[in-house]
Amino acid sequence: MRHFLKINDFTSGDVEAVFEKAKDYKKNRGQAGTARPLEGQTWAMIFSKSSTRTRVSFQTGIYELGGLPMFLSAREIQLGRGEPIKDTARVLGRMVSGAVIRTYAQSEIEEFASYSKIPTINALTDDEHPCQILTDIFTFNEKRGSIRGKKVAFIGDAACNVARSFVHAAELLDFQLVCAAPEKYQTDVTNSHTQTTSNPREAAKDADLLYTDVWISMGKESESEDRIQEFQGYQLNHELKALANSDALVLHCLPAYRDKEISERLLEDCADDIFDQAENRLHIQKAIMDHLATSK
């Protein structure tokens, strides 16, 4: 049984296969004869964390692949009343064909996958956000060619799930990642493809992709005041973009808090790319579900 719980659940070959499928799904969306590999299947969407893009893209994607999406808020099922994850997993595993889970602890989704014995996809945990990262790299490849050998600059909270998944992707897909963050907010994972710095200008210099995420992730709201102060100087703006390569791509996984982690002006100047990136969540996630449903 195959799952996608973290970036390293896929090989580079898996990623290339997903990208090819995503291209086809994007090109042929809405056309007669498009593949429907989830025909007759029900997929559960279990969300402990709220969302816009993740919920809409997965729900739409399951439907377009021929399946029935069943949205289950954690507050609406027995998980919210203390039922063990392994018991919920055992029940759903007998009734549905796959699961998409957005929650807090990585251990929760791994336990669910182990006991449910159905394809399980990580739609975000505190540790990783693998669907987002595949989307980001797919978007780069679509607009600038292969990311292999390129330099990616992540500016901001490098201790977040997005940055952590980027670290693993850098090694898997052979690109250079430089994370610029205050020391307190540096990534806790690294490898030979990753560098860390507290200097955002150093990270941005000669970068092919400039990337940022919110300074205050879900669950960190009580730290808002401190974080806003500590991340001063780490805003992604035109000054940093001027240090990157002339055709550097600017991406943000959204939602964006304008004039905090990214300037209003830069976001609007790069809006076409950023909202293409948002749309690509749909195509990549359809390709991931297809890949899991049809792989042995």
Structural notes for this entry:
The protein has eleven helices and nine strands. It is an alpha/beta fold. The strands form two sheets. It has a five-stranded parallel β-sheet. A four-stranded parallel β-sheet has the order 2-1-3-4, with helices on both faces.
Provide tags for this entry:
alpha/beta, five-stranded parallel beta sheet, four-stranded parallel beta sheet, 41% helix, globular
Break the fold down into its secondary structure elements and pairings.
Blueprint: H1 12-27, E1 42-47, H2 53-64, E2 68-73, H3 85-93, E3 98-102, H4 106-116, E4 120-122, H5 130-144, E5 151-155, H6 161-173, E6 176-180, E7 194-197, H7 200-204, E8 209-212, H8 224-230, H9 238-241, E9 249-252, H10 264-269, H11 271-294
Parallel strand pairs: 1-2, 1-3, 3-4, 5-6, 5-8, 6-7, 8-9
Helix pairs in contact: 1-11, 2-11, 3-4, 5-6, 5-11
